[in-house]
Every structure is written in structure tokens, then in C-alpha cells.
Amino acid sequence: MRRIIGYLVLISLFFGWALAQENIKWGDDGSLTIITQDDHEEITIPADQVGTLFGPGEQPFAGQRIAITVNTGGPKGGISGPLHQLRPAWEQLTGAKLDIVEMPLPEQLPTTINDLRLGLNQFDGFIEGAWYMGEYITPGFIIPIDDYIADPRFPHWDPNWMPPSLRNIYTWENKFYATLNDSDGQVLYWRNDILSDPEWQAKYKEEVGSDMPFPVKTWDDVIAISKFFNGKNWDSNDPDPDSGVVLHFKVNAQGHFHFMTMSASYVVRPGDTVDRCTNNYWFDPATMEPLINQPGHVKALEKLQELAQYGPEAQAAWDLTEGWDYFMRGKAIFTFSWGDVGALVQDPTRSKIQGKLGASIVPGSTDVYNMCSNAWETLDEPNVVGNTVGGSWQGIISSRTPNPETVYSLYSLMATAPVHSWNTQRGWTGVDPGVSIDFLPPNGTATLEGYEAAGWNPDDVKFYTQAYYDNFYAKTMMPYIRINGTEEYWRALDQNLSEAMIGRMTPQEALDRTAEAWKGITERRGLDLQLKQYQEAIGYHP
Fold first, then answer.
1. Quick one: three-class SS letters along 356-420?
2. Same domain, 151 and 255
3. Where are the alpha helices (DSSP H) in 268-380?
4. CATH number for 211
5. What is the residue-averaged pLDDT of the chain?
6. Same domain assignment for residues 480 and 385
7. How far apart are CA 242 and CA 258, in angstroms?
8. Which of 86, 181, 352, 431 is the most buried if burial means most Cβ atoms within 10 Å?
9. In terms of residue numbers, what domain contains 75?
């Protein structure tokens, strides 16, 4: 009997070892192949990117356990999904265990900040929205990672891949605090098969009396085209009328970012300086007076209301995935949103428009409000403004963790070029492109063949990657804020925008209320501290 039990133990150990080996494979050349949890996709990392800590039989963090917070989404959800899919391989590689702690978006910041303030220290790291960073850095709750980035023991990624616009939101006072992951910014998407069709262009001219303004250059062009197509059955996927545009405006579902994206071209004046009226958007950098209810912002909200009437009525209560799905079903000519859309369009289980996609940097406005002279200016060419709106969800390390190297080993593995490319080329991951390894030559080092191997349509790739390159390298960028209280400022904006979009407030009323709320937040947080942080955030020098 003992002999039989002994055999059973050996067999059990063998099969347990064999199953564990399915998560990673080592090449004879020292390369590492990671196998994802659900789809069993293989991602191969060259030997010179793996890091010297790791090798066959090496588990440098054996016995350790770390907990990382992330958006609620599950094993195939945006931002959370990659953690789940890579966890088995990372655990086998390091010998450590990973607890993935998912939280709804509105709960993330208060839950983690309260944990840190109370000294509970339940979490070792956070996949956070970039706008949280000031809340973590000011009290010393997270650590810089420059030394880890330069350390050859860890998986290799290169900060020089980043354009300045993204580098600014991964760093604080020129120190890196976050590891490359997501690159958020909104671009304009459209149905290129419809707008480039000579028959539809002729119908537009016949009905409207002028040529279709395509390619679009201004938001007024988008509104005009959306108005024409709204209510027509221009797509053959079903017999029902289709829409001109689709957006989403549900509170606490990131709908307020649509307003930020659209309003920037009416507000952010280009120039070589930073002051109240140049390369600025949020507050007067000399006084911290809220600027959100200035005429440029108000006009932009009026334009957003005008555009939204040419979309489905239900979008007022939709979250972003509902808006995306409507566009991907072929029901709207336009949307403007994050990189997830272009990637999800390639998924035939969700999309009917693969190969029909157009994309570009968002359009501009020839009318820009000067917040110094308090007057409108009319430009010869549209004021086109790039953006980094959104979370650019990024991994940061708690200063309270006893295992910072273990946390960084996870983040840096995800930041390697092969894993990053796997992430950005699969729309469900929520990880969007924005760095040089995502762009086609001459803008970057990605290859069309690499995208096609991941199931992309080549024409879609060309539109998509050029749109994001143009956005992140735009000459004029909308400033991004991460100061203390940003979550509160944006929540107030989000709530009031929602009221405006469902008709309960006028644009002026909604933004006046937002400005009053912002004054209260600033006073409670401390005017001097808020002003100092804001000046540093936008590069203003008194």
C-alpha cells in the first residue's frame, strides 16, 4: 500500500509540475515565452529583455505575495484582463503569488488612499488613473522607479519610447513613478466606406447644397455630416434608421472626457508661453480662478449638445462600452473615443465594420476664445489640439510595501515590447497605443505584418496608428492635471455635464455650477497648495 501511495504522490507531483510548466517556456537562446491564461497565446520576450533575475529554475521572489488594485473587469476586462492573463506565467517565473483586487472606478481612489492613511497597507501597488497621481505623491505614498528602470535585473522597457505628452503623465518632477502600460487619448473615428463613397457625397450635395466637408477639419464639419446621415438607413446591417454620431454620457463612466476633448480647440490657444490664455484650460495659473465657465468652454458645450442630438437618445445613460458597441454594429458614422475602439473593431465577434474604419486626430475650431483679452479670435486655420484625456492606467508602487522589487517585476514584464504589443493589439485589454513601438515607420518601429498577424485589417491599422501619432505629437496639447483634488474637480464637472446633456441645465448653468464647486474644493484643499501644484503641472512660471 505504501508503495502505491508513493507512486500516486510522485504522479501527482509530476502532473502538477507539468501543468505549471504550461505557463512559460524557455528557449535555448535564453528567450522567455509567456502563455496567457485563457486563450493560451504565446508571447516571446528576447533574452536581452527578460532581465538577469530570471532563468530556468530561478524563482527570485518565492514565498512572497503581493496585492494589486485595478478596475473592475475580470479576466477579459479592460485594464484588469492583462493582470489575470499574465498572472500564472508571472507566478511561475517569480515564485510569488499575485492577488488581483478589483474595484469600481468611483471607489478606487478613496479606498486606496484611506488604506494608506490609516496604515492598513493591504495593497502593494495600484493600477491607477493618471489623474490620481498627485494624491499619492504629495503624502509620499508611492515611490519613484528610475533606479529599477535602469537595473538590468528586471525586464527591459525604454522610457524613450514615449512622446513628451505621455512622459509628462508618467513622471513627477522629472522622476518616473509609473511603468509603461496604457496610453489614453481620444481621436475621431468614422465610417470611411460611407464618407468616401461618391454616391453618398453626391446625395449630400444634392440635399445640403454644398460639397460634403470630408475629410473633416472642424467640429462644425462633424456636426454637418452627422446631421445629414442621422435617421437614414445608410448601413445595410439592418432595416432600421442609423445615427450620425454616438457618444456616452453616463455619470461616473468617463463620459465627461468627451467634453474635454471637444472643448480644447475652443479654449487652448497655442503659443510659446504658458499663462491664463495660452496653453491653459483649467484654472488661472496666477490666482486659481476656475476657467471652466469661460465663453470658450460654454460654446464647446453648446456644440456638444448640438452634435449629440444626431445620436441615439439612449446615449445619455450609456457607458463607454455601450457607445462603442453601437458604433461597431455599424449604427453611427462618427464617434470620438480612445484607442480601444480601433482595436475592438478588429474583433469579428463584436464588430461588423472591420476594414471600413477611418481615424484621425480630432478636428479643430477656427473660433478660439482669448481668456486674457476676453474676446473671440478667428483663425485662418482650425486650432487642432492633441489630448491625453482619460486614465492612461499605469502601475505604481506603494511606499509601504515590503516587496517593491516584486511589484516592479510584474509591471516591467508587462511593459516589455512583446507584452505591450500583445496588449495594444487586442481591444479587450483596454491598453491603448501611444509610444514608438506602436507606430508604423517612419513614425515608429511596429510592423504592418505584426498587426495583421493579430487579425487587423491593414487599412484600419494605417488610419489608426497615424491618428494616434498625430495626436500624441500634436504641436498644441491640452494640459493634463493630476493635482490634489482632481478626482473631485472632475466628478463635479461630470455630474453637471450630465445634467446639461439631458436638458436639465443650460451649458452656462452647468459650467457656472461646476466653477462654484471647484472654488469650494480649492478652498477646502488649501488655495496656496493647489495653486503651487497647478503651476507646476502646466509649467507656469510667475
1. CEEEECCCEEEEEEECCCCEEEEEEEEECCECCCCCCCEEEEECCCCCHHHHHHHHHHHHCHHHH
2. no
3. 295-308, 320-328, 340-344
4. 3.40.190.10
5. 93
6. yes
7. 21
8. 431
9. 20-177+394-429
Residue 209 and residue 124 in one domain:
no
Provide the pLDDT confidence category of residue 294 given band limits of 50, 70 and 90: very high
Task: Give the model's pLDDT for residue 402.
Answer: 97
| Rounded-to-integer distance, Cα 90 and Cα 94, Å | 6
Confidence tier at 249 by pLDDT (50, 70, 90): confident
Q: For the chain, what's the residue count? A: 542
Q: Is 90 exceeded by the pLDDT of residue 198?
A: yes
pLDDT tens per residue across span 379-415: 999 999 999 999 999 999 999 999 999 999 999 999 9
Reference 278, options 141, 361, 373, 170; nearest CA is 373
The answer to whether residue 465 sits within a structural domain is: no
Residue whose entry in the numeric block shows the C-alpha cell 516591467: 412
Residue 145 lies inside a defined structural domain of this protein: yes
- Domain termination site, one of 374, 405, 429: 429
Same domain, 483 and 404: no
61 shares its domain with 168: yes
Q: How far apart are CA 195 and CA 275, in angstroms?
A: 40
Distance from first CA to last CA of the chain, Å, rounded? 85
Which SS3 state, helix, strand or coil, does residue 170 take?
helix
- 464 part of a folded domain: no
Residues 118 and 207 in one domain: no
Residues 6 or more apart in contact with residue 349 via CB below 8 angstroms = none
331 in the same domain as 211: yes
The set of cell numbers assigned to 88 is 500564472
The cell for 315 is 446615449
Cell of 251: 455619470
Q: Would you say 401 and 302 are in contact if contact means Cβ atoms under 8 Å apart?
A: no
Same domain, 30 and 159: yes
Specify if 136 maps to a domain.
Answer: yes
Among candidate residues 410, 429, 448, the one where a domain is terminated? 429
DSSP H or E segment with residue 225? helix 219-229
Indicate whether this model's pTM tops 0.90: yes
In the predicted structure, residue 91 carries a pLDDT above the cut 60: yes
* CA 323/CA 527 separation, integer angstroms: 38
Domains: count for the chain: 2
Average pLDDT over residues 424-439: 94
When computed from its CA atoms, the radius of gyration of the chain, rounded to whole angstroms, is 24
Q: Residue 298 CA to chain centroid, in angstroms?
A: 25
Q: Is the dihedral of CA 345, 346, 348, 354 positive or negative?
A: positive
Angle in degrees, CA 211, 217, 221, rounded to 5: 50
